[in-house]
Amino acid sequence: MAPRSILTGLLGMVALVMGVGLLLVSTQEASSQSQAPAKPAAAATAQAGTPIEAVLTSAPEVPPPITRRDPAKVVVHLEVREVNLPISDGVEYTFWTFGGQVPGKFIRVRQGDTVEFHLQNHPDSKMPHNIDLHAVTGPGGGAASSFTAPGHESQFTFKALNPGLYIYHCATAPVGMHIANGMYGLILVEPPQGLSKVDREFYVMQGDFYTVGSYREKGMQPFDMQKAIDERATYVLFNGSEGALVGDKALKAKVGDRIRMFVGNGGPNLVSSFHVIGEIFDRVYYEGGSRYQENVQTTLIPAGGSAIVEFKAEVPGTYIIVDHSIFRTFNKGALGMLKVDGPENKLVYSGKEVDVDYISEKAGPQSTAIASAASAAEKGTLDIKTQIAAGESLFKGTCSVCHQPHGNGLPNVFPPLAKSDFLMANKQRSIEVVLKGLTGPVTVNGKQFNSVMPPMSQLRDDEIANILTYVRNTWGNQGEQVSAAEVTATRSKIKLPPGAAH
C-alpha cells in the first residue's frame, strides 16, 4: 500500500474511534441524567452533613413540622423505663414505657431520612425490651436488632422509605403483655413536601389495660394475664390514664384554629371508634396513610394502627373525645376533652356550654377528692368531710342528670333528694335502692313519682358509700356516714336483678 493510503487509513480509524468514544460518553451522560434523583448533589450533601438529633415529645405535644427540603441522617435516643403511675384516681399501675409515660415519645422524621436508632433500657428495669417500628422496612421492624437487657443499649439504622403515621411497640415475649403495659407510641414519616399548615397539632393514643382489680378499685393493681387473653379490658384510656386529657390537662385551642390530631391505637386487643362529640372531621387520613376521606363523624382505628384527623374549631366550648364503643367511655375511662376558647357564633350553634351527660364528674378541674378518700380509708382515717368531698365528685357523674346538681329532681318525673323523707327514713333501704334500682310508684315529700332508677351496682362499694354520705348530708339533709363495709354487707345479702352489674 502506498504511504499516502496508509496514512489516510490510519486517520480514518482514529476518527472512528473518537466518534464512538464521544457517542458512548454522550449516551452515559444521558442515561445518568434520566436515572438520577432530583437534586442529587443536595441530597448527598444533606446525608453527608452533621447528623440531626431528633426532637422527641411527650403526649399530647408533637414535635415541630420538618422544614428542611432534603433527607438527612437523624439520630433517635429513646429510653425504656418501668414506672409506677396513676391509672385512675387512687389507682396505681406499673407501666412499661418508652420515655417514662404512656404513650411513648412522638418521633417525627422525613421520607428518605436515614434514622440511627439508639434504644436504652434503664438499669432499674426488671425486664428486657426491644422495639418494633411499623415505619421500618426490615425483619421485625427493628425488633430483631434491638433486644436490650436492663442497663444496656442497642443500636440499628433504617431508611424511612414510606410516608405515613406509624405505630411502634415492644415486641419482646410475651408481646401482648409488654404492649398491654403501655409500650407503644407513634412515629410520623413526613412526605418530602411536608404536611399542610395547621394551627395546632396534638398526640392522642388509645390503649386497653387489664388489672386484677375491677374498674377504679383503689390501690396498686397488678396486670391480669387471663383478662388480657380473654380481651376483657378493665380500662380503655387515652394517653395512659383517666386524667390524662380532662380538666386542667384538656387539649386547648381557639375559635378559628385548624386542628390536626395524630391518633394511634396501641391495643393490644380492641379496635377504636374514635369520635369528637360536636365536631366533624374535615379530613381523615385513614389507617395513617396518604389518602383521606372528607366529612367523617367517627373513624375506626385498628389495634396497631393510626389515623390523622383534621378539623376547624368553629365555636367555643368543651368537646368530648371518646371511643364511641360508648361503654368504654363512661365505664372504662376512654374520655378526653378539647377546650376551645373564643367568641360565640350563634349562627353555627346556640346551645349551652356544659352538657353534664357527656362531661359528667370531669366537668371541672381534676379533683383529688376521690383519691384522698381512698387513701384515708386505707389508713383508717376516713372522716365524713373527706367522704362528702369524694361523694360530690362522684355524684356529678352518676346521679345529677336525673336528680339534678342541687338535688331537686325534676317535677313529676324524678323525685328530689334534697330534704327527702323517703331517702332519710332508712339508711339501709337507701343502700339497697342504689344497688338494686327502683321501679314503680314511690311517694317522696307527699308527692308521687313513677319512674325508673336503674341499678348502679357497677359502682364500687366505697363509691356508693361516698355518694350516699354526700347526699345524706347535703341540701338540708342530716344523716350519718355510710361506710364501704355497710355497702359490702348489703351487697352480699341481697339478690341483684337480672342485668345488673356484679
Labels describing this entry:
single chain; 502 residues; alpha/beta; six-stranded mixed sheet; 13 helices; 26% helix; globular; disordered N terminus
What does this protein look like?
By secondary structure, the protein is an alpha/beta fold. Helix content is 26%, strand content 29%. The protein has 13 helices and 23 strands. It has helices at 3-35, 40-48, 175-180, 225-230, 327-331, 356-359, 369-379, 384-398, 400-403, 421-425, 427-436, 461-471, 484-493, and strands at residues 52-53, 73-88, 91-98, 107-110, 114-121, 132-133, 153-159, 164-169, 184-190, 200-209, 219-221, 235-238, 251-254, 258-267, 272-277, 281-285, 293-296, 298-301, 305-312, 317-323, 335-341, 438-444, 447-453. The strands form five sheets. Strands 1, 2, 3, 5, 7 and 11 form a six-stranded mixed sheet that branches. Strands 12-10-14-19-16-17 form a six-stranded mixed sheet. A hairpin with a 7-residue loop joins strand 16 and strand 17 (293-296). Helix 7 packs across helix 8 (384-398) and helix 8 (384-398) crosses helix 12 (461-471). The longest helix is centred in the N-terminal third of the chain and has 33 residues, at 3-35. Residues 1-46 have low confidence and may be disordered.
Strand and helix map with partners:
Layout: H1 3-35, H2 40-48, E1 52-53, E2 73-88, E3 91-98, E4 107-110, E5 114-121, E6 132-133, E7 153-159, E8 164-169, H3 175-180, E9 184-190, E10 200-209, E11 219-221, H4 225-230, E12 235-238, E13 251-254, E14 258-267, E15 272-277, E16 281-285, E17 293-296, E18 298-301, E19 305-312, E20 317-323, H5 327-331, E21 335-341, H6 356-359, H7 369-379, H8 384-398, H9 400-403, H10 421-425, H11 427-436, E22 438-444, E23 447-453, H12 461-471, H13 484-493
Parallel strand pairs: 1-2, 2-5, 3-11, 4-9, 10-14, 13-21
Antiparallel strand pairs: 2-3, 5-7, 6-8, 8-9, 10-12, 14-19, 15-18, 15-20, 16-17, 16-19, 20-21, 22-23
Helix pairs in contact: 7-8, 8-12, 11-13, 12-13
